[in-house]
Amino acid sequence: MINMDRKHVIYVLLIIVFAVYVIRLFQLQVIEQEYFEEKSSDNSIKVIQQTPLRGVFFDREFNLLVENVPAYTVRITPADYDKKNNEILENVLELDSGFIQNLMQRNRIYSKYLPLRVKRGVEFKVIAWIEENWQDLAGVDYIIEMQRAYPFGVMSSHVFGYSKEISQRQLERDTDDYYVPGDIIGFNGLERSYEKQIRGTKGENLILVDSRRREVGKYKDGKKDTEALKGKDLVLSIDGIIQKIAEEELGDRTGAIVAIEPTTGEILAMVSSPNYDLNMFSYVTPRAFLHELMNDPKKPQFNRATMSAHPPGSTFKIMTAIIGLELGIIDDKSSYFCGGGFTFGRFFRCLGKHGSINVVTAIEKSCNTYFYQLILKIGADNLYKYSKKFGFGRKLKIDISEESAGLIPNEEYYRRIYGDNWPRGILVSLGVGQGEVSTTPLQLAHFTALVANNGQSYVPHLAKGYLNENKNLIPFTFPEEDVEIKQSVFDLVKKGMYLVVNGNGTARHLHIPDIAIAGKTGTAQNPHGEDHAWFIGFAPYENPKIAICVLVENAGFGGTHAAPIAKKMIENYVRRKLNLFPPTVAEKSIEKVSPNAN
Amino acid sequence: MRIDYKLNDKFDLYIFATVSILVVIGLAAIYSATQNTIQAKGNFEKQLFSWGLALVSFFIVYSLPTTIFRVSAIPLYVFSILLLVVVLFFGKTAGGAKSWINLGVFSFQPSEVTKFATVLVLALYLSRKNIDLENLKHIGFTLILGLIPVALILLEPDLGSSFIFLGIILSLMFWKGISLFGLFIVLSPAFVAVASLFGVVYLILAIVTVIVLLFLFKRDIFLSGSLLGLNIASGFFVDYFFRILSPHQQDRIRSFVDPMADPLGAGYNAIQAKVAIGSGGLFGKGYLSGNQTQLQYIPEQWTDFIYCVIGEEFGFVGSVIVLGLFLFLFIRILRIANYAKDDFLGLVIIGILTIYFLHFTINIGMTIGIFPVIGIPLPFVSYGGTSLLVNMTMLGVVLNIYRSKNYT
Known about the structure:
Chain A is about 35% helix and about 20% strand. Chain A is an alpha+beta fold. Chain A is elongated, with a radius of gyration of 33 Å. In chain B, helix 9 (about 200-215) runs antiparallel to helix 10 (about 220-245). Chains A and B meet through helix 1 and helix 2 of A and helix 12, helix 14 and helix 15 of B.
């Protein structure tokens, strides 16, 4: 070593360092290039999700019921924001004191350059104030985001439902990995059941960010960006006008209305009262509002139209009659004697003394005695079997998920409760729709539709279909229904229902000269308070266009309280459908959206 | 005689051209790294101005009589040591180290000047007739001359520059003809110290290696024993030494041992530098199109991490070209060391080459993950006025010695 030429040692050293560095560079830049390229992209490309617009809802006449409107969202960017402005901003935005401090505290793990949403749905005058004072409000800005609006003036909260930010539990159940935190998802009603159709397709904007996550431009000038595609617009079977009438007529009474087109099963109106304000559910729901809603004894969020099960009262006599006729226990000539009541173990009262009457008159006069005797011959199991066919005691599986089954007892049910020797007297009141039978307004409306259309219809539904790119209606398909009951049976019960309105029945005040309405009133005994008023009916008698069920809770007699609402809706709807009158004045104020307009 | 022959004889155009290309590449990279940043706006123009100044200095030093280096060695050394003392009291802190002297109009790092002064004074001492590097006293005096500035610079504390000084001492002793055992005496404590940074297992392995080597040298027991003692002491003193380092330097050493331990802290630069270079690929992302560079993923990239810009935007090809330019430059300078008319000038050339080479090796090594990040600029390429001025001045010395080679 000592004698070695030291210059050559240095040469070797230089070459070694050079070689090692070239090899290292080759490793980094050629062999591992893909890995580092990816790292580098991850570093600097931020994917900004483009939220698609949710599909809007039209009614069957293409009136816009639910739309998207721009709403202002106020944001702060913590890096530029001065905390001195907390108080004034909280005042202007009507937020609780400390809200902004809290918000910033919760988000402090994220970059200071990421804007935080302070409040959505801010009024324009606040935006104007921000514009005026922008110099003193560094780090405060606003963006426009879409929010649901209900331009037709019908709220139909239970039908439309609301959409809001996805919850942690929903995210966990999202097997397609479509959603990310912060996404909007339908929570109930149609917003939920047609979520996949109306949510649309997300887009992506690729944004270049620097090391401090500040946005500095578009990645590849936006060539790799994808646009969000708006969700499908739904065409509902709802008729906006009678929906509005139904909402107005129920007013602040507690109750529900369901109207169905008998031939198609399309739900023309569905109202549950009291309503609640869907606007309050857009994005962040104020806590006070939720508290109020939860503690309201009338339970506004509960969809009475599909979920409240009450004894159907006398409206159920139609069902009893159909079973009796179908089973041949009675025919059009057979009669029972009514002396003002019926004794079976105890005395069961009738509201009148109808003497010897047949089935048509028994329906017309709503004679209890007739059906007391008939139901004993039918028996619990037959009642159960045929009621199920007509949709009682089970969920109809309509296209919103909020639905209850109601109750139709059978012999096994009674045995389970009372033992083998269950008192047959219990059965007696079932014949007139009292006691241990309960139905929802939807079930009764569906039943009425089946009767009106002679046992054939479709599973009731709220959406007809969606609009394709050319604004043509692409219909959804729904299962057909046929209860397979003899035509003569329907002829007789419908005749009875016709006479209820047009003969000497309990709803004579519904009579309209040019529209033949058939119906049946009912009063459900309510051990907790005033009786519930029912009315079912359809019109026109010959070629039914609408079948309807009205429930007014704690109102008393069905003919007095429920039937007049049905009359108004039927009259309006049938007149328009059959052109019995020129279009009503109300329509002028409604903006028509034609399906073929661009 | 023809003019071009004369020119080639007096001036190594290859060296000058190579350095000029490196400076231009550096300017381009500085422009790329700073065009989007607010705090470094104008750095390109400043560097261009520094280059002009450096060229003036280069030509002045080039045309000075060669004897001036011998004469000025001791005064320059004393002066620069004084500067290092001054900086400890009146210095300006940057990057955790008090290493700058602010002269109002501009500020500079005395340690840059001290490197050259130390080269001169060591060359002067080692070129004395009676110097024998088998003599422990002579080794000791050489070490003392070299370690005084190291001690002062460690107080700033500037770890990176201290390493350069150790390299200078070593390479000059090597060029002078130190024996293998002499080299071992100087090197082994440093080797043990570095090994101890990586943990107890490495420390024990290093000490075992030292013991084995001591056996092989077959020196007397007393000498071997005290050397072993020195080694073990240096291994354990690293811990003490480590603690006197500034926190950011401690972090950098820790992050070199395990860069992923704190990927957003001290290891951040090392990782982002590798990402920048690796993602450049074969041909790079194109000038001004490297997202790591343009989006400022590497803090102060125009100084110590300038090589990342080249790696990212010009790829493997560009990176290797820069390596090649340096290799060519070093080989040319090494040739001049051979031609130097006396020991002193040869040692000066080797000292300057060592400064260039160590800066080059450590700087590029730290950007490609071979060395820890210790804040050493890349000669001629990195942004920095003092560094460019001193490097060009030293190049003036090199070419001055080249010019003088044929005259004695």
